[in-house]
Design brief:
- The complex is a heterodimer of chains A (about 160) and B (about 260).
- By secondary structure, chain A is mostly helical.
- Chain A has a domain of about 110 residues: Up-down Bundle (3 helical TM bundles of succinate and fumarate reductases), CATH 1.20.1300.10.
- Chain A has four helices and two strands, in the order ββαααα.
- In chain A, strands 1-2 form a two-stranded antiparallel sheet.
- The longest helix of chain A is centred in the middle third of the chain and has 29 residues.
- Chain A is elongated.
- The termini of chain A are far apart.
- Chain B is built from eight helices and seven strands.
- In chain B, strand 6 and strand 7 form a beta hairpin.
- The two termini of chain B are about 35 Å apart.
- Chain B is an alpha+beta fold.
- Chain B has a five-stranded mixed sheet with strand order 2-1-5-3-4, covered by helices on one side. In chain B, strands 6-7 form a two-stranded antiparallel ribbon.
- The chains are: A mainly alpha (about 160), B alpha+beta (about 260).
- At the A-B interface, strand 2, helix 1 and helix 3 of A face helix 2, helix 4 and helix 8 of B.
- Bound molecules: protoporphyrin IX containing FE, iron/sulfur cluster (SF4) and FE2/S2 (inorganic) cluster (FES).
- Chain B: InterPro entries: 2Fe-2S_ferredoxin-like_sf (IPR036010), 4Fe4S_Fe-S-bd (IPR017896), 4Fe4S_Fe_S_CS (IPR017900), Beta-grasp_dom_sf (IPR012675), Helical_ferredxn (IPR009051), SDH/FRD_Iron-Sulfur (IPR050573), Succ_DH/fum_Rdtase_Fe-S (IPR004489), Succ_DH/fum_Rdtase_N (IPR025192).
- Chain B: One of its GO terms (biological process) is respiratory electron transport chain.
- Chain B: This is succinate dehydrogenase.
- Chain B: It is an enzyme of class 1 (oxidoreductase).
Chain lengths: ~160, ~260
Amino acid sequence: MSTPLKTKIQVPRSRDLEVDGVKYNRAGSSRSRFEMFAWLFMRMSGIVLIVLVFGHLFVNLMVGEGVHAVDFGFVGGKWANPFWQVWDLVMLWLAMLHGTNGIRVIIDDYAARNTTRFWLKVLLFVASAFVILLGTMVIFTFEPCPAGADPSLLASFCSAH
Amino acid sequence: MSTAVTENQNQDAQQTDDAGEEAIPTYDIVLRVRRYDPEFETEAHWDEWPLTMYGTDRVLDALHKVKWELDGSLSFRRSCAHGVCGSDAMRINGRNRLACKTLLKDLDLSKPILVEPIKGLPCEKDLIVDMEPFFQSYREIMPFLVNEDHTPTGERFQSQDDRARFDDTTKCILCAACTSSCPVFWTDGQYFGPAAIVNAHRFIFDSRDQAGDMRLEILNDKEGVWRCRTTFNCTEACPRGIQVTKAIAEVKKAVFASAL
Ligand code: HEM
Ligand code: SF4
Ligand code: FES
């Protein structure tokens, strides 16, 4: 990226400086504590995610038979246990909010025009709200022993097994 | 403070003498400068000059040689020529430096030396950019002592420890090398930028100043300290060797302390 150029001659240091649709004059203050809390949230959620993500990977991929044990029944069994429901729910929300805020910040860093920023963020928030809601719904409404399923695929605790 | 930038080891290049005579070695260099003249063109272009320079010369001397002997229309800012005034920050071989503090012999002379205006500020002509957005954010952080006490008849005393607390950030010469090396600033110039935060730091941590809280509030802004992504470009760019990123982190901590 080269330095943007002025395409027409302007009075130097003019107050209405604008180059290629990018305003260089500072737009005035926009004070709020939101950015401070967002910054703090990235660090705090990051620390919690280290435990949640690596705990998740350890339990799913290393413990017992490890990755070979992962199948429908394994997932069903985990989500029948309130402990793993809460674990996965917290992991889902923290990862999604952390990731969404990270992308929001990247959009602010790279999109120069306000309208571009706005629409990219609309897309981002809609997408992440969809994933958060769908994920939450699945964790709580997941039916580990659907009626009429192939018994060999069901978890060991299902009565049809 | 170590700000010497070395790209190569140019051993005593071509010695111009045959006998043991003590001559200053000369180098043949190629200087490539990003040129832009709004009166005659809409796009910037590169100009190139082969020059014979001395081993003691700096990039600024090469620019002077071009301006004084080859092309008087070449435009750049410089005043002190000794790293004090902060007017000749430019992008030299892709890095922000002061032309007057960059020795030619420390650069890779096998390739042309690339000289461009600093990024993120609108170019006015050749190497001259409009510094107004930079100074706008500088003014906003109130870079002056605020003290409502009765004016003392003498000096306002301060312990050595209190003085040392902000010593690093007193060294700033407002060259804009840091702010114009910051990718967050490049986007739209709305971020306060490292230089404004460095100069706020200089007063926030000064025991004689009483407006620290106001400055912290000013920097607790959507475009304030929280936009810093700790890329360390600013610390690398600073010709005064100021620990810019560290100063920003200290201001972040102080904002927490005052806001929570
Ligand atoms: C494993 C634990 C994790 C830790 C310790 C962690 C830590 C952090 C921290 C401290 C930041 C802020 C960086 C800055 O402000 O400059 C960040 C940014 C970010 N994180 Fe994470 N994170 C973790 C997991 C994740 C996950 C699971 C995702 C995806 C869902 C993610 C996506 C992002 C994104 C997109 C950013 C913004 C990128 C950037 O700042 O350049 N992180 N992370
Ligand atoms: S902090 Fe360093 S790089 Fe930034 S304006 Fe001051 S002297 Fe220049
Ligand atoms: S000319 Fe003054 S700092 Fe380089």
